[in-house]
Specification:
249 residues, three-stranded antiparallel β-sheet, single chain, globular, alpha+beta, Aminoglycoside 3'-phosphotransferase, Chain: A, domain 2
């Protein structure tokens, strides 16, 4: 007897992990179980909506699909309302006000060391123009300062934030959750969508240093460039990392 099989959609796949969607279930396959442990632990602690964990059988974690649609996508105009972006800012503030998770994030010195290494690689290999790298390394300096740790998502891309109209229905992918800089989350949420920064900050509800946000945009784009290329992504696509870097020139 034939059994109905729902369509399997590859959401993301690279050498480190893969996420598949089968009907209303997401299957996350990750060889690094410590990363999955961190994700499960974080989801149990956060005060904002997250996907329901259906089951776990290493190396697979099964999550229920979140309702509605992502806030947007990098490289594409967001159709979400200003109120939805503000709601995302408010959700991030709720997260940042929560008790700290046990997992420590990277230190300023570690990030600065990685940034220097990546900038050297980008220039030495002719991947990006020297003036582009130099200028964005200068902008990134604003982010390299002491901060008071808060509970951060750690990879708050707009594709990880789901909305229904003006309401947040949930936030995905907590594998990088840790103690870290609050402005890093705000920067990743608005990366490539600078036009929505004011809405996010309004929803966040407190003054933020916009130079630090811009610093994190440059820093994240420089750090991610080699990884993206080596894992089959195109940082030169319209609205993506190269455009983010060029916007600081």
């Amino acid at each position: 007897m034939m059994v109905d099989v729902q369509e399997v959609k590859v959401v993301v796949a690279h050498d480190e992990r893969a996420t598949l969607r089968v009907g209303d279930v997401f299957l996350k396959i990750d060889a690094d179980q410590t990363r999955v442990d961190a994700e499960v632990e974080a989801m149990a602690m956060v005060p904002i909506p997250t996907p329901e964990i259906l089951w776990r059988k290493p190396p697979v974690l099964a999550l229920a699909a979140l309702p509605c649609t992502p806030l947007g996508r990098l490289g594409e105009p967001s159709t979400a309302s200003p109120a939805a972006w503000a709601a995302a800012g408010a959700a991030v503030r709720t997260l940042h006000d929560a008790p700290l998770p046990p997992r420590l994030g990277r230190s300023v010195d570690e990030i600065a060391s990685d940034l220097d290494s990546e900038c050297e690689w980008l220039v030495t290999n002719g991947v990006l123009p020297t003036d582009l790298v130099t200028r964005n390394r200068q902008v990134a300096e604003a982010a390299l300062r002491p901060w008071t740790p808060v509970f951060i998502h750690g990879d708050l891309q707009i594709t990880h934030v789901f909305v229904d109209g003006d309401e947040i229905t949930g936030v995905l992918d907590w594998s990088e959750a840790a103690q870290g800089d609050a402005l890093f989350d705000l920067a990743i949420l608005t990366l490539g969508h600078e036009e929505h920064l004011d809405d996010v900050v309004a929803g966040y509800g407190t003054d933020v240093d916009l130079d630090v946000i811009r610093g994190w945009w440059s820093l994240r784009s420089l750090l991610a460039f080699r990884w993206l290329v080596e894992h089959g992504f195109d940082p030169s696509s319209p609205g993506c990392e190269i455009d983010v870097l060029r916007s600081r020139m």
